[in-house]
Write a structure and sequence with these properties.
The structure is a homodimer. By secondary structure, chain A is of the alpha+beta class. Chain A is built from 8 helices and 8 strands. In chain A, β4 and β5 form a beta hairpin. In chain A, α7 crosses α8. Chains A, B: It holds the Pfam family cNMP_binding.
Chain lengths: 200, 200
């Protein structure tokens, strides 16, 4: 766990924000003053169950795995957060109750983070961020519901195709075990599935 | 399916809005002008899979059941929407793609609805609604993630206790079959569970 010594650019996060709202230069600088940077080493955790979430993260480079472990010891991956994605545990971040999640870096990962205090301040200082987060949460909610639906209604094969479509850059960066956990099958079943698909 | 002839009060929806933003009288009237009322008869559907969602709903009275049916014919209840709740299918509402859901009235239900067109207009006319929906979606997202977690991590007994805590008014209004579907067990298992609990 180390703070970044050589700061990286805010260009990517500003571009992400500009999808939904326009910030002038003064607002951009004010926004940046509320952010912090961090480099997370491969395999390091930034969250473990029982901890209260202090920050929301934007990924500049690398990959974070967000997951929980059920009472039978089975791992459930909620999300791989990659470049240009937002992640965290919004329930714990908002309620300041302990999280049920692990967040671990699968590669060395550069993040930009905003604390809960600065997040609250942001809406006071730059009210148009209400719009940015309204649209961001709206899309997250729709995507989250869609994925839950698909976990129920799609076959394992179709869930694997969806993973490949959603995360084309991850297919060869993430372990087979993690892909299997994300789509909700055993690694053995995923191996059979991949052989079946490659023989089509 | 009938439009309401005797309009009901907008008091409840305005009170719901006032949790997060203050509207002056002019804004209240403008907002109300963008809404429509409807009474849904018991057992009527306002959404079936394949249809594109036209409206978001606020429940004034009654109860709607939001559910999907998987390819094995098993019903999965996402939500019981009761008085003072918002519901719909946000993914279909936003993307204007066909829904996977059924929404059915379990009782005669009074709703206030906003169309997609008026929803978009609302943010132009009264920008502070960005804040209202930012907070609403933020809470929905946190609740949705929490419920998905609990479906994985809690026992059926604890899921039943959560249902009773979340919907105290529904325990005797909704069928045992529907409660079983919501908590993800068979009606037979729920019956065993309730007997076990009542004997404690």
């Amino acid at each position: 766990m180390k703070e970044s010594k050589t700061p990286f650019s805010y260009e990517l996060i500003l571009k992400n924000i500009s999808r939904f709202i326009d910030l002038n230069l003064e607002e951009q600088n004010l926004y940046i003053s509320l952010l912090r940077q961090r480099v997370i080493r491969k395999k390091d955790f930034i969250l473990k169950p029982g901890e209260v979430v202090k920050d929301e993260y934007f990924i500049v480079k690398g990959c974070l795995k967000v997951y929980s472990i059920d009472d039978k010891g089975v791992e459930h991956i909620s999300m791989f957060a990659i470049k240009d994605w937002w992640t965290g545990d919004i329930a714990s971040f908002l309620t300041q109750q302990p999280s049920n999640y692990f967040i671990q870096a699968l590669e060395e990962t550069e993040v930009i983070k905003i604390s809960r205090k600065n997040y609250d301040l942001l809406f006071k200082k730059i009210p148009k961020f209400e719009r940015f987060y309204r649209i961001l949460y709206q899309k997250s909610l729709a995507n989250y519901i869609l994925r839950s639906d698909q976990n129920i209604s799609l076959s394992a094969e179709d869930r694997y195709f969806n993973f490949v479509k959603k995360y084309p850059s991850l297919v060869n960066r993430v372990s087979q075990k993690d892909i299997a956990s994300y789509i909700g099958v055993t690694p053995e079943f995923l191996s059979v599935l991949r052989k079946r698909i490659s023989s089509i």
